[in-house]
Putative DNA-binding WGR domain protein
Amino acid sequence: MHQSNESIDRIDSKHLLDASSPICDSAQMISQPYHLYIERTEPTLNMARYYQISIEPTLFGGVSLSRSWGRIGCHGQRIVHLFDDERPAVTLFLELAAKKRKRGYRPRATPNVRLQPPKEAASVARPI
């Protein structure tokens, strides 16, 4: 079948698939990774809290700063801030990290863990 030029020139929709998209595919990547996990533990106050901040690119060319906090071992709460570019996200990241440091949050201390080989089973294999 042969289509005439008339049918090709006719547009039957307000939305063109070949039209330029407002979303830019060449969005700049984040210049460096921003991830922070800090904790505040005070056994005398029964306090064991964590705070986590990270900056990630979004699918639409922007940047998101996500932060989560709560009691260690629990899900806690989470909030995500959206930005058009990286600079204001980094500014907020640094402000939040400074505030938490003033309140006593520190990177998690790695305990000296000595791995021990698994204990041999003392039971004797019994026939079934």
Notes: The first helix runs from residue 5 to 9. Strands lie at 34-42, 47-57, 63-71, 77-83, 106-107. The longest strand covers residues 47-57. Confidence is low (pLDDT under 50) at residues 21-27, 121-125.
